[in-house]
Amino acid sequence: MPKLLLLDIDGTLLDSHKKLPDSAKKALQQARLNGHDLAIATGRGPFMINKILEELEIDTYITFNGQYISHKGKTVHKEAIDTEMLKEIYAYAEQQNHPIVFMNEEKMISSIDYHPDIDESIKTLKIPHPEMEKDFHLDNEIYQALVFCEKDEEQQYHDTFKEVDFVRWHRVSCDITPKGGSKASGIKHLIKVTGHAIEDTIAFGDGLNDLLMMDVAGFSVAMENGHEETKKRASYVTDHVDNDGLAKAFKHLKLI
């Protein structure tokens, strides 16, 4: 039975140097030849994954942790964060001196000219510090935002804004998404158009934003380099991403 393979990018497809291991690329190509379907499932936005989509010839993706989904080049689901809610979060974060970055499908824009926390976390994605544009979140649909605060400053956001979700992805940054929006809800939207049953999905990931995806997929694989919680929740834990972990998982699951 052909499987739908849902692949996280950072720490799963890309190694700790943000490179795609040759073993992973070959494994994906072989899995496709064996009849399996490939899709990306990432917290990144569409504009941040063009290179990897091209290199792997993948045309189906869940981005912004489920908020923007495309299948065979066609947008099949999108859900923006409520503009009034964003205004409130922005005003609150400004009082705490926490900058915000807003993202639509084409770009990311900062609420501030430059901030070291934005620079530190965005650099890990190999992306330059975003430009500032004052009313970007008022004039565009925003599918995901980032608030830059440390872990001990995070709880106030959960307590104050219960209509959205905050998921930490970096030491100084949290994703902001519409309530209940996740890679898991993204999978449910996606399989409606791909025709796969949920039992025939396999999720591969390493981060906290992969937890719900692991719960909903038919089978789940965590990378050895992943978060402890993710490894606990997965059906199977493979080797480190830097040690051909993805290719080893594909072999273990007899996808190749």
Automatic annotation (TrEMBL):
InterPro entries: Cof (IPR000150), HAD-like_sf (IPR036412), HAD-SF_hydro_IIB (IPR006379), HAD_sf (IPR023214). Keywords: Hydrolase. GO terms for cellular component: cytosol. The keyword Hydrolase applies. SUPFAM superfamilies: HAD-like (SSF56784). One of its GO terms (molecular function) is magnesium ion binding. The keyword Mitochondrion does not apply. This is Hydrolase Cof. It comes from Planococcus halocryophilus.
